[in-house]
Every structure is written in C-alpha cells, then in structure tokens.
Amino acid sequence: QLSDKFDAVFKKLRGQGRLTEAHVTEALREVRLVLLEADVNFKVVKDFVAAVQQRAVGSDVLKSLTPAQQVIKIVRDELGRLMGEGEDNALDLAASPPVAIMLCGLQGAGKTTSCGKLALRLRKDKRQPLLVPADVYRPAAIEQLKTLGRQLDIPVFDSAADADPVDICRQAQDYARNHGFDTLILDTAGRLHIDDTLMDELVRIRMALSPREILFVADAMTGQDVVNVVEQFDARLDLSGVILTKLDGDARGGAALSVRAVTGKPIKFVGLGEKMDALEVFHADRMAQRILGMGDVLSLIEKAEAAIDKDEAARMEKKMRQDGFTLETFRDQLQMVKKMGSMESLLKMIPGVGQAMKKAGGMQLPDKELKKIEAIIGSMTPLERQNHKLINGSRRLRIAKGSGTRIQDVNQLLKRFTEAQKMMKKMQQLGPKGLKGLMGR
Ligand code: GDP
Ligand code: MG
C-alpha cells in the first residue's frame, strides 16, 4: 500500500540532522515510484516531484521538525496544492431556474447513483430537484432512476421510452418550469468506451439546456485510464467539475490526483458508498492525507510548531553541549514533551506507533509516570541535578520524602537516567549532527 511505502521511505530520513539535497533526492526517487505504482499519471508525477524537490532543498529546516517530518510536510502541502486545496468546490447554481446539472461518464462509473445522492443533498439545501432519465438505451437504467426517486421521494421526469434524450431533457425543462422545480439533474447515458455517437448526443444536450454544471463521474478504482477519458470528455463538453466515486473501496487515490492535475477541473464531490447519503464535499487536505496515509502527521507537526519555542530549543541544545546530558536537561526535555500534549496522544500520532501501542497493550510511560519523574527531579538540589553520582542512600531517602514517592521510585528513575545517559554518550560521539538529530526527535 502507498502509505506503507511512504513510511518506509521516511524511516530512512528519521533521526537525520539536516535536510540535505542527497536526502531529498533519495526520498523523492522512491516517492516517484510509489506514485507511479499508485496509478498516478506519469506527467503529473514528474511535475509533482520537481515541485517538492524545489521546495525541500535549501528550505529552512524547522528546529521542531525532523527531516522526515519536514519532507512529509512538503509532500503533503504539494499534494494538497495539486488537488486544489483552498479552492471553492461548491456547486454553482446561480442562474435563473430551472438550473440544469448534467452528469456524464463511462458506464458503471456511478452516474445514476450520484444523481440520486445529489438530489438528496440539494433537497436538504431547500432546493426542488427533478431527476431526468436521459439514458434511454437500457430500459433498466430508467427503472433504476425511478426506483431511487421513489426511495428518496424525489420526482423523476416521466418520459416516453423511445424518445430522443435531447427531447426528454427539453421536455423536462418545460415541465420543471411549470411545476416549481428549480433544479434538473440529468442522468445521461454511458458507454464502456468513448464513441462519437455518445459524445455527439451529450454535446447536443449541452447545447439545448446549457447546464450550469457539467460533472464528470469518475470511478476511483479505474486508476490511470481515467485520465485519457476525462480529457476527451473535457475537450467536447468543457466540464465544470468531477465527482469521484467508490472511494470507500481500497482505491489508491492516484485517480484523484491525476484527474485534477490533468484537467485543472475541481473535484467537487466524492462518493463513499452505495447508500444515498454517501456523498461528501471533496477536501483536498483529506485526500492528501489519504494518499499519504500516515497517521495524523499533520497535527503532530502543527503541535510541534506551536509548542516548541525555537529559542528554547537553541538554549537547550547549548546547555546540553556544555553540561552533557544531566538530570536537569532530562527534566527540560520532559517539560517540552508535556507542553506538546500528553505523551501518549503525541506518540499515537506518529505513523506506525499507534498500531504498535495497541499491540503492546498500551504505553509504558503514561502521564502519571511523567509527573512522578518531574516531582522527583524537582526535589533534588541543583548540584544533584548536575551530578547524579552525588546521590547516595541518605540523599535518596530525602528526595523520596520530598517528592512524596518511594525510595524504589527514586532508584528506578536514576537507573533509567543512567541508561539514557549511556545512550546519549554514544550519540554524542557521532558529533554535533548526531546530537541535533536527537534533539529533533
Ligand atoms: P452508471 O452506469 O454510471 O449510472 O453507474 P451506477 O450509478 O449504476 O453505479 C454502478 C455501480 O456502482 C452500482 O452498483 C452502484 O451501487 C455502485 N456505486 C456507485 N457509486 C458508488 C460509491 O461511491 N461507492 C460504492 N462502493 N459503490 C458505488
Ligand atoms: Mg446509469
């Protein structure tokens, strides 16, 4: 799966001190393969990778982010931008009624289903929709729309079975005008493949009714192929937007990215199931998240940015370089972690960690434990914090009393700390780069 691959790519970057050109290039080489494998159009991938490369190399690495997080953030931002983040996706129905919305696309994409979903949504918005069956080639298609209409209690225009689709649409328009319907939803015919007869018919409907919205219905499961199809529809019909269906399955998301990037037309809705209420407004940021599939990386990044004062981080780094890793720096770090929210919620946001925690049956270091550690260190004298070796038996007893803990708790903390210190020493032998990476984490 795409998300696992990204995870693997970024694991390599985790813990590195700086975002160098080499890091970015290596990560992006794999990002590129991953996207291609997810059925994203190759031209789209090329542009995307170039954009990320340009932004990543030479950009300031935030002290609060690891290089991995930094690259994730840029990749995520660019994915969002590519899918039209921040654009207005709302339907444009600002015209004198009845306004027509035309749905088109290949057979089985979900046109008829989406017509029903759209009608339900519009009625909730206090509009009066009329469903129009313009797919006359399969009797079952008209019947399908009628069934949906009955189910939703939304009228379906009653046409003669052998009428021309363009005539049906015109008649439906007159009918709507005379019966107080303000919105026409046109369910047009599809084919397994594009052919001229179908296209000509759709163009004639467009000329007859001038629909305010012409939405291409794309099946998210079809991947790469959809790009050619949507381009041809757009060339003849000048689409106003896209409905991406069947995202409730394990579609890889490549279609969304490609369709939006190739046509430049906004994705307005996504279909998330067969039921009539399974239609949602498209959110570029959520789609980027889906494609990345990396836990709630973004909120982790936001939290880190908000909580960690850059000067504070610099001060701590300096202190650590001077004094080494002491109980004092240890406490500073704990406080920083606390500022960022509970340890547990923080760890859960890191990709993979949430699942690992579930498997392990919870965290070893809950907030209660953190408070205890803080209390113990707080009961030490500054000298003891600088040099833990001073802390003999009687001092331990005093610290335990002062912090309202047991002497075993003090012993355990000192043991943990000594282990951490040993690890730190090893890291420090890696030089300033290794230290910085550690701080970043
Ligand atoms: P049309 O030929 O384009 O009109 O496609 P239909 O509306 O008849 O849909 C074809 C099939 O896809 C039907 O079985 C629908 O229930 C199903 N379908 C449509 N949209 C979705 C969706 O968003 N999710 C899922 N899981 N199925 C969908
Ligand atoms: Mg249909």
As an assembly, this protein is single chain
- Give the SSE order as H and E letters: HHHHEHEHHEHEHEHEEHHHHHHHHHHH
Distance between the termini: 26 Å
**Biggest beta sheet attributes:** 7 strands, mixed
Which SSEs are present, and which pair or pack?
Elements: H1 2-13, H2 21-37, H3 42-56, H4 67-82, E1 99-104, H5 111-124, E2 129-134, H6 139-152, H7 165-179, E3 183-188, H8 196-209, E4 213-219, H9 226-237, E5 241-245, H10 254-263, E6 267-271, E7 279-281, H11 284-292, H12 297-307, H13 310-323, H14 327-339, H15 343-348, H16 353-360, H17 367-378, H18 382-386, H19 393-403, H20 407-428, H21 432-440
Parallel strand pairs: 1-3, 1-4, 2-3, 4-5, 5-6
Antiparallel strand pairs: 6-7
